[in-house]
Amino acid sequence: NGDEQQNQDYLFKIVMIGDSAVGKSNLLARFARNEFYPNSKSTIGVEFQTQKMQIDGKEIKAQIWDTAGRERFKAVTSAYYRGAVGALVVYDICRRQTFDSIGRWLNELHTHSDMNVVIILVGNKMDLKEAREVGTAEGKALAEARGLFFIETSALDSSNVAAAFQTVVKEIYHILS
Ligand code: GDP
Ligand code: MG
Q1: DSSP for 113-138?
Q2: What's the rounded Cα separation, in Å, for the pair 85 and 61?
Q3: Complex ipTM above 0.95?
Q4: Do residues 16 and 51 make contact, with C-beta atoms less than 8 angstroms apart?
Q5: How much is the pLDDT for 41?
Q6: Residues with CB under 6 A from ligand 1
Q7: What family name appears in the similarity comment (predicted)?
Q8: For ligand 1, atom 2, which residue shows the shortest CA distance?
Q9: Ligand 1 centre from 52 Cα, in Å?
Q10: Which of 44, 55, 132, 169 is within CB 3.0–4.6 Å of 40 for a Cys-Cys bond?
Q11: Of all atoms in ligand 1, which is nearest to the CA of residue 36?
């Protein structure tokens, strides 16, 4: 069976959502280009970035979409979500308000995409230890209650950034194969 699947192509659309300035664009920049923007005004970046990944020896293309700042104007449209099979729902561990928004983002995601979309809850900026407002256990508990994967990341120092994307891609691949 390995042989006949060798040339199969996988293209997974994955969306990034969450409040403004939680670090969505920088997580994508870190993952796809190993770049970080210390003073980005939360509008940097491209519409989407395609990243090749290997899972079980298969080449998978993850097409990762960034809101490109539209969340500030409540202008993330249904087209953004259409066809998504994975999502990173991001909050800033130093701003509780962004954690309190997660429920709304999940509702929006479920309204506009397939119920089986693979979701990881991402607590970003874990490098800012002194300013933390949301505990790791709280993030984990919310993820468990909502049936999501969970990880804390830092786009600044790269902690767990690749793991966050890989977790989603691996799970999608295992569901589809
Ligand atoms: P977005 O609006 O969700 O796309 O957020 P951005 O990626 O534009 O990031 C907003 C601000 O937070 C920028 O000034 C980034 O430099 C900063 N930032 C993003 N990720 C991290 C992180 O992991 N750690 C720290 N310390 N700052 C971050
Ligand atoms: Mg952004």
Answers
A1: S-TT-EEEEEEE-TT-GGG--S-HHH
A2: 12
A3: yes
A4: no
A5: 65
A6: 20-26, 37-40, 42, 44, 124-125, 127-128, 154-156
A7: Belongs to the TMEM19 family.
A8: 21
A9: 24
A10: 44
A11: 16
